[in-house]
Amino acid sequence: MGFLLKDTRAAVEAYLEALNAHDADAVAACVAEDFVNEHTSSMGQSRKGRAEYRAALTGFLENFGDLHYAPECFLVDGESAAVPYDMTFLMRSAGDRPVRVRGVFVFTVVDGLITHRTDYWDSGEVQRQLA
Questions:
Q1: Is there a contact between 117 and 104 (Cβ–Cβ < 8 Å)?
Q2: pTM of the entire structure?
Q3: Per-residue DSSP letter, 122
Q4: DSSP character for 72?
Q5: What is the pLDDT of residue 43?
Q6: Helix, strand, or coil here: 120?
Q7: pLDDT at position 1, please?
Q8: What is the mean pLDDT of each run of 10 residues along the chain (131 residues)?
Q9: What per-residue confidence (pLDDT) applies to 3?
Q10: H-type helices in the chain, by residue range?
Q11: Which residues of 98-131 are buried (b: 16+ CB within 10 A; e: fewer)?
């Protein structure tokens, strides 16, 4: 069981490091072919499959300048992990306005790859900061 916890956390850490490095190819390499990226906020857009997710990453990383996820902690249970985070970025499409949002990722990891990511964050908070 301990090995599985280590693999799950390592996969999630690698994914977050790739996002923070703004490396779309490295981010996509952390997810399974049939990856599901589920957003709960109205501003987020869910994606299915590594190819569709990878295709969207470039624009996302360009618009969310200096994107950085700071994990508050890692809660790991077998193949599942929950990671509350503090996300900061400069919204390029809004004149590089700074934004800070807290949220929670919930991941499922199978065989070292992320198969499902649910992202819980308040898009209204982004809109308030950009108003």
A1: no
A2: 0.92
A3: -
A4: S
A5: 75
A6: strand
A7: 46
A8: 72 97 96 95 86 94 95 96 97 94 97 96 90 88
A9: 52
A10: 2-20, 24-29, 50-63, 123-130
A11: ebebebebbbbbeeebbbbbbbbbeeebbeeeee
Which has the closest alpha carbon to 73: 13, 26, 11?
13
Amino acid identity, position 49? G
Q: Are 84 and 102 in contact (CB under 8 A)?
A: yes
Residues 119/103, Cβ–Cβ less than 8 Å: yes
Decide the pairing of beta strands 113-121 and 97-110. antiparallel
Element (H, E) at 37: strand 31-39
Closest CA to 80 of 103, 49, 105, 102: 105
Q: Phi/psi class of residue 22: alpha, beta or left (left: φ > 0; alpha: ψ in -120 to 50)?
A: left
**Torsion of Cα atoms, 101 then 104 then 108 then 114, to 10°:** 20
Separation of alpha carbons 48 and 88, rounded Å: 25
